[in-house]
Design a protein that fits this description.
The structure holds two protein chains of two kinds.
Chain A lengths: L5 E5 L4 E5 L4 H14 L1 H4 L3 E7 L4 H14 L3 E2 L22 E4 L8 E4 L2 E4 L8 E4 L3 E7 L2 E4 L9 E6 L3 E4 L2 E3 L14 E6 L2 E6 L5
Parallel strand pairs in A: 2-3, 3-4, 5-7, 6-8, 7-9, 8-10, 9-11, 10-12
Antiparallel strand pairs in A: 1-2, 11-14, 12-13, 14-15
Helix pairs in contact in A: 1-3
Chain B lengths: L2 E6 L7 H14 L4 E5 L7 H4 L10 H5 L5 H4 L1 E2 L6 E4 L12 H14 L2 E5 L6 H8 L3 E6 L3 H16 L6 E7 L1 H6 L5 H8 L2 E7 L2 H9 L10 H13 L12 H13 L2
Parallel strand pairs in B: 1-5, 1-6, 2-4, 2-5, 6-7, 7-8
Antiparallel strand pairs in B: 3-4
The chains are: A alpha/beta, B alpha/beta.
Chain lengths: 207, 264
């Protein structure tokens, strides 16, 4: 079904070209064919932008050349829709993209990742890790960890020693109480949202 | 309309941050509305010294880049309701803020507060320039070491070039016993070189180390000598005439009584 790699869709502002996943050469060919077959349809109108499959800059330029130079169809310049991409909440906390960081993060170091993050080392005070998914620290977490940073409330933060400056999960922010009687846990701990609160418990509740 | 005061030194490690935290807290204790602003982007400390690190969500860079409203960036102190902190960003560097942005920020802050205290970074580069750009007055912190005094002198010159005249001097970490023995520069020597008004002298005090580590400015400690010194500095900033503390130890007090008794 090579037929539907390229689809034209009209909106109030003009035409969008939806491009589906597929071989770029087939996309090019199909676009060329469709434009040729219905050139009269495009006359006077203008194409606003490409949507769907991510195009590299080179690929996009090539398609633009076909549209503009070969078929003389106008393409709106610069009106590229405000990147209003509604990023979907990251769901890969059970199984998904994960970044492995093989070092300790020191004060001022900052990692942001659109997935889960695993740190082989400590997270020192003043360091920040922001992940769309879970954060696991194989060491002591003393800095700031923000799990589920694009909204996933199911995300967790886990560490061998959980002593964060601040913990954030989705849009919840938690910090230690000011009274310094909080005992250090000897066990690895895990932080998650339960109800409207961030709670911390041991990995292995039975021990 | 509040006053914007920058606390600077040139040399690092002389106690700018400690001084900022203590003056800020001290002024708030005396009923003023105060904001302390950490301009040391990338090496922030003021939040730690004030024990407010775990409350930070937004910072100076977020505020000047308008990622958040000014109100959201201000952190209320845990002890005094009229004291606020605007923390620096830790994951950026000094170039994250432009002087024009700082100027605008200080204008905005002085509308709301009686005192805006800016904790300047060490050095005389971009960070320092950002810290002084919106200031009406400057406080120079130095320690009784030739290197610190040299840097203070340089900074006073730079401030004057920027139109900040008559900075005030705080001499930090004085050890009266050593001064007495002639092993440490004395206050008069330093004032001789720097030729600016003395705002206060703070003794080297273990209480400062303890309070810094606890995140509670020493000015709140009635018993500490250094705390008293900072209280006096605050009262002088408010225009009161307060005599310099007498750092003489117990022995010193005794000898003074002897002096009074026997006119020696």
């Amino acid at each position: 079904m090579n037929q539907d790699l390229v689809v034209f869709k009209g909106t109030q502002d003009g035409l969008y070209i939806y491009i589906k996943d597929g071989n770029f050469n087939s996309i090019k060919k199909e676009l060329d064919k469709k434009l040729k077959n219905s050139i009269s349809f495009f006359e006077g109108g203008q194409i606003i932008d490409f949507k769907g499959r991510k195009l590299s800059e080179d690929e996009e330029n090539e398609l633009r050349r076909i549209i503009k130079d070969k078929y003389k169809i106008k393409i709106a310049e610069g009106v590229k829709e405000e990147v209003k991409e509604e990023v979907e909440i990251f769901k890969g906390i059970g199984e998904g993209m994960t970044k492995f960081v093989k070092t300790t993060l020191r004060s001022g170091q900052f990692i942001s990742y659109k997935g889960n993050v695993v740190i082989f080392g400590d997270l020192n005070p003043g360091s920040v890790v922001e992940a769309w998914g879970n954060i696991v620290v194989l060491g002591t977490l003393r800095g700031i960890a923000h799990a589920g940073s694009n909204g996933n409330k199911e995300a967790i933060v886990a560490a061998f020693h959980l002593q964060p400056t601040q913990l954030r999960i989705a849009n919840f922010i938690a910090r230690c109480p000011d009274e310094e009687n909080a005992e250090e846990s000897k066990w690895p701990e895990i932080a998650k949202i339960e109800g409207e609160e961030v709670i911390i418990e041991t990995y292995l509740p039975k021990k | 309309m509040g006053k914007v005061i920058v606390i600077t030194s040139g040399k690092g490690g002389v106690g700018k941050t400690t001084t900022t935290a203590n003056i800020g807290t001290g002024l708030a204790m005396l009923g003023n509305k105060v904001v302390v602003l950490d301009a040391d982007i990338g090496l922030r400390n003021l939040d730690v010294v004030m024990g407010l690190e775990n409350r930070i969500v937004y910072d100076l860079v977020d505020v000047v880049e308008k990622n958040c409203r000014l109100k959201q960036g201000l952190i209320k102190d845990k002890r005094y309701d009229s004291l606020y902190l605007l923390p620096a960003a830790q994951t950026k560097d000094k170039n994250a803020v432009k002087p024009e942005q700082m100027l605008e920020l200080t204008h905005e802050l002085r509308e709301e507060f009686d005192f805006v205290l800016i904790d300047s970074p060490a050095g005389i580069e971009q960070g320092f320039q950002n810290a002084i750009v919106g200031a009406d007055e400057a406080v120079i912190v130095t320690t009784p070491e030739i290197s610190a005094v040299r840097d203070a002198d340089r900074v006073i010159g730079l401030l004057e070039a920027k139109g900040l005249h008559n900075p005030k001097l705080i001499i930090n970490r004085i050890r009266p016993d050593m001064v007495k023995k002639g092993d440490m520069m004395n206050i008069d020597d330093m004032i001789d070189i720097l030729a600016i008004d003395l705002l206060g002298v703070v003794p080297d005090d273990e209480a400062i180390v303890i309070s810094t580590n606890k995140g509670e400015p020493v000015v709140t400690d009635e018993k500490a000598m250094s705390g008293k010194a900072y209280q006096n500095i605050c009262r002088r900033i408010l225009g009161e005439e307060v005599e310099l503390l007498n750092f003489d130890s117990e022995e010193g007090k005794f000898s003074r009584i002897m002096k009074i008794l026997f006119g020696k």
